[in-house]
Amino acid sequence: MSDTDPTYRRYADGDDQPYDWNRDVVSQGESYICPTYIQRTPPCQNACPSGHDIRGWLSIVRGQDRPEGDKPWQQHAFERMTLANPFPSIMGRVCPAPCQEGCNRNSLDGCVGINSIEQYIGDWARQNDLAFSKPEADSGKRVAIIGGGPAGLAAALFLRRLGHRSTIFEAHNALGGQMVFGIPGYRIPRDVLEHEIQRILDVGGIDVKLNTRVGREVKVDALEKDYHAIFWSVGTVMGKPLRVEGGEAPNCVDGMTFLKAFNDGSLKYLDGRILVIGGGDTAMDVAAVAKRIGEVAELDAAERPQAVFDGSGSQRDEQIAKRSDSDCWLVYRRPIAKAPCTKHELEACIAEGVEVHDSLAPLEVMLDDQGHAFALKVQPVDWSSGKMEANGEPFEIECSLIVAATGQTGDYEGIDDIANDWNQIDADRRMQVKGKSGHFVAGDAVNPHLLTTAIGQASIAVQGIDNHLRGEAVGDRPKVEGHHFDLLQELAQKDLSPEEYNHGETWGTNSAKWSVHNFENRADADVVKTNAMFTGHFTYQPLNARDELDVNVTNVLGSMIERFNGLEEETAISEAKRCMSCGFCFECDNCVIYCPQDAVYRVDKNERAMGRYVETDYSKCVGCHICKEVCPTGYIEMGLGQY
Fold first, then answer.
1. What is the pLDDT of residue 642?
2. Could you tell me which CATH class the domain 26-41+486-522+583-643 is placed in?
């Protein structure tokens, strides 16, 4: 066995204690407990804030769950994945993929490349102009959506699928929120963004009012009269300033101001060393942009970045030819290994020439006679004790621009009564605004986080809005949330639905036509872990990674190309086949092959569906547990017969 081959061990070193006697029931190869089939949530879905049925659409890509008729499998996968998140091309590019961190395959040879497959499906859908289906009915209800970012756009689509109309009120001149104003265009190509936004609007029943700020052009009480519910997705459009003495200098700005100026085309170059303060993804974006736009020496005051930020000046296209590599420092108060940013983004910034100076706490912005920053005084610090302690003498770092990427906040001017003391909106577990009936909220207004978090919260909020519009109680949320696979829905699509229950006396359900026997759906309460699976079934298969372009210090200036090339169809399929289908049958035949009594058998082809591939003849089963032990996915549990 080579060093790259995965190993499988049911027991660890020193694991010599017997099971609890209630579980250790096998005697001479037999027991009274028979297998049943349990659907559980895979950890990738549990880790995804938008609750993607990742395992479900990967089973489509790998060819297990085939579409009906002549529908392309890519379309089938697109329809499944966009039930949870309508931006596959965007998320496949910029989501930091917490799903991949949760992937059980990490215990073998590394996670499945979920993001790269999502990008492939999203790009295929765009190239083939796939559209979302239009609703069959109209409820007559209208919802006001305040903010046209990812949460607001997703909510508009989710509401329309339920038959409700909406109007999006957006303060800016374009929809997209952070996707258009906060994330650089080389990470989200603008044609991709515009296409995925337009696909949502094409569903119909979604009106848009741009350059319309709620609290100024339209009042909240007017919305309450004209609409049946209000959804708040105002986001965090303002960066937090650097809270040290001198931080108010005109050439000391926040990260959102910097990125917005770049994304709208007004910031074209810098004029000297830039210090980026922070260790999150916004800090990485600012630093990466700084390396791309470079600097121009000896600028007039009206062309310097601070003149762009405050609107007193502008930069000229003809100066772009004079640009040289920018001097960009990333200053972080903790060790850089503790930075919350995506690891790859940090590594890319370093490769592109960004200097990292960590364990430095900003003390003061040093100002010249005109009130402009010329240096940042910092204190070297040590964190080995678990808290920040001074470690040496303070010193000054000369600079021409300081960008504080240390957090973001909302702008609630004119709507102050909706925000709390931390400039956020309080919500309950159903994303209903506390103390305001008919008001719901999602996204950074609740808690600044990922794009996919905002979309997942929008889905939850829409469920609550739908309950509210129907006059129903807004119920509690399940322990494990997500867009779970529904076996009954799958059976219905194949005309295999159970018969209507006759409420008569029945002894067992083994032959009952009204019951899906020996199956239990625990997806909303249970997540399958690696130790419940037979990982010895899987062979070593390296990640089919996307090709990464070599953007480095020698060619980063002026580079606005994407860092990754998307997968080709064959590679996407190969990568999807690495999925271990945790918590659900993927038709490997192990239980059929290894059953010594031939008690486990395949369902007839004309009655087969996803999740209904095998059944058990309990008259033959002796409870040997072998089927459970060899099930790679943890789908089989010995439980039938216990009381």
1. 58
2. alpha beta
